[in-house]
Design goal:
Elements lengths: L12 H12 L4 E6 L9 H19 L3 E8 L9 H13 L9 E2 L4 H13 L3 E4 L3 H8 L16 H13 L8 E4 L14 E5 L13 E3 L1 H11 L4 E5 L6 H9 L8 E5 L2 E3 L6 H9 L14 H7 L3 H11 L6 E3 L1 H15 L2 E2 L1 E2 L2 E6 L10 E4 L9 E4 L4 E5 L19 E4 L4 E9 L5 E9 L15 E2 L1 E3 L4 E8 L30 E8 L11 E4 L3 E5 L11 E6 L8
Parallel strand pairs: 1-2, 2-3, 8-9, 10-11, 12-25, 14-20, 18-21, 23-27
Antiparallel strand pairs: 4-5, 5-6, 6-7, 13-24, 14-17, 15-16, 17-22, 18-19, 19-20, 23-24, 25-26, 26-27
Helix pairs in contact: 2-11, 7-8, 11-12
């Protein structure tokens, strides 16, 4: 992966391994893969994995190697998987700017070959049909202090195991009544090698194979063989699979397959103030605590896209997370900082007022009081300019006025002057309040000699943004904030030592909707158009609910600075 300024990707231990393999001639090319399970939407942890795997392809292609990266769905758990999730993963990978090689792969593409390898293992005396139930299997398995015991069915003959397995496939037995297990070592200190189950009976309709199969292979068995079938050179996965690597290697060493990929583990991303468990994210959706998987508060790629995060911002964040085996705990501000950094250059700028006070210009003269044009970006003249019209009534932000200003105040107060951005210097002459004492209007006068130049004989320090009440358009503006109020919402323990329900830490103010007034230049903006609202932050037209030419719908992406700093 390269940065926006085309700097080379930072080296890391995975790239060091790949470089050594290419230099030694062990491999002449690189083949990686991204293998999600389609049981939810891609989240920020997947984003890191996508950038690592597809980034290797891009970088080694740039070095002249024939590099590939596959997209393969691990569809071995039919009850929880759906085409919706698979389509979302594909769209997210494309949106991030990556492309996979060839057609999308599915583990189910290999079900026939996986079954044939299972029979091969039975014929070699390395697999057996077991009838222990789940509770009995846990008892026989042992634990970290106690070795396991052989199943009473472990010594069945090859012929009996083959017959039973074929009858399992034919649907003769009830769900859960039998499993096919590898015959490895019940005394191994690595519990993953204690005769693991690699086929189970499960009558469930599959999103691709329908009702063809009533037995399904387990992930550890399926994954390594799928990698080998696809010619993967370096099988990259998160660190929780480190203890599974001996099983990965054992399976490939004990079947007649030529390719043996190298599994390499890196630390998974833990993002503070977020969760990355698809099961828990699904709970938020099911319980109605968010509007869906693509709610802009969700740490899913679809949600972050709808929030206004750009692909470049997410790729920069993934790069800053780094690749290592050490703990990868990242504060949410790092994500927001990367997004903000990319948007600073990408987003055109306009003015908007989200908490308005009306300002009446008492000496406004039609045909005399002039408007100016302003650039959409101070450093990108190619973005063009727009007119910033002025009218007798304006809106300014409520917090740009103070009746009793604090020390160092440089904005508007009674009797003081400020400059309107791209316009005149004005002075507040009168404050109008309602019956409750709330400020509802400011009467101000223009210094007509200050359009585009400083006033004579005095210095005006403050500059505030504003919009013309006559020309601005109303918009629905959604002010999003972090979804959780604590750093690790799914790791908080109560007085009894048990984990608290993470849902109680949902931020009740994570969404607030206001009516904003925005320059008319945004009227025809397409969905997913990003802007900087000057002095307020970055905003995006909603991907689904905004219609060009209609009443705009904006989502706040991120503020101009981190408001969560302690």
């Amino acid at each position: 992966m390269t940065t926006e300024n085309n700097a080379p990707a930072a080296s890391n231990f995975i790239r060091n391994i790949i470089d050594a393999d290419l230099a030694s001639g062990k491999h002449q090319r690189t083949v990686t893969r991204f293998p999600p399970e389609p049981n939810g939407y891609a989240h920020i942890g997947h984003c890191k994995a996508i950038c690592i795997n597809f980034g290797i392809k891009e970088d080694y292609q740039a070095k002249g190697y024939a590099s590939e990266c596959n997209l393969r769905f691990d569809d071995t758990n039919p009850e929880k998987e759906s085409e919706e999730y698979a389509l979302a993963f594909k769209e997210d990978v494309r949106w991030l700017g990556f492309s996979w090689d060839g057609e999308v792969r599915w583990a189910s593409d290999y079900f026939d070959r996986l079954y044939a390898y299972a029979e091969e293992l039975i014929l070699a005396g390395k697999a057996f049909v077991c009838e222990l139930n789940a509770e009995e299997m846990r008892e026989y398995r042992g634990d970290f202090q106690k070795p396991g015991r052989n199943s009473p069915y472990r010594d069945r003959s090859v012929a009996e195991n083959l017959d039973l397995f074929r009858r399992m496939k034919a649907g003769e037995f009830e769900d859960g009544s039998k499993t096919l297990r590898l015959k490895i070592d019940m005394g191994s200190p690595n519990i993953n090698l204690r005769d693991p189950v690699f086929y189970r009976i499960r009558r469930a309709h599959h999103i691709r194979t329908g009702d063809k199969w009533c037995i399904y292979p387990m992930y550890d068995y399926t994954h390594c063989i799928s990698d080998a079938i696809e010619g993967v050179t370096h099988s990259l996965c998160s660190l929780e699979f480190e203890d599974h690597r001996p099983l990965y290697d054992w399976v490939l060493d004990n079947i007649s397959i030529d390719c043996h990929p190298q599994q390499i583990e890196f630390s998974r991303l833990e993002l503070l103030y977020a969760i990355t468990s698809k099961r828990k994210l699904n709970q938020l959706v099911v319980d109605g605590l968010v509007t869906g998987w693509d709610d802009p508060r969700m740490p899913t790629i679809s949600g972050m896209r709808r929030r206004g995060y750009s692909p470049a911002g997410l790729r920069l964040f993934a790069q800053r997370c780094g690749v290592s085996k050490s703990e990868n705990i990242i504060d949410y501000s790092v994500l927001e900082g990367a997004v903000r950094e990319m948007l600073e250059a990408e987003a055109p700028r306009v003015m908007a007022v989200l908490d308005p006070i009306k300002v009446t210009l008492t000496n406004f003269e039609a045909g005399v009081t002039s408007s100016r044009t302003a650039p959409f970006h101070p450093h990108h003249p190619e973005f063009g300019e727009r007119e910033v019209p002025i009218a007798p009534q304006l809106y300014i932000e409520r917090d740009d006025f103070a009746e009793v200003p604090p020390a160092g105040w440089q904005r508007l107060t009674l009797g003081s002057e400020v400059r309107l951005r791209y316009s005149y210097v004005i002075k507040c002459d009168e404050v109008i309040k309602d019956a409750a004492g709330n400020v509802v209007e400011l009467k101000c006068s223009i210094d007509p000699a200050t359009l585009g130049q400083n006033p004579v004989g005095r210095k005006v320090k403050g500059v505030i943004h504003w919009v013309s009440a006559e020309h601005a358009i109303e918009a629905d503006v959604r002010l999003y904030d972090r979804l959780f109020t604590v750093e690790r919402p799914d790791a908080v323990r109560g007085a009894d030592g048990q984990y608290e329900d993470f849902r109680q830490f949902v931020n009740p103010t994570s969404l607030r909707t206001v009516t904003g007034y925005i320059e008319a230049a945004v009227r025809d903006a397409a969905p997913e158009t990003r802007y900087q609202f000057e002095r307020l932050g970055y905003f995006v037209t909603d991907r689904y609910e905004h219609v060009a030419g209609g009443r705009p719908v904006f989502n706040r992406t991120v503020g101009l600075k981190d408001s969560w700093q302690k």
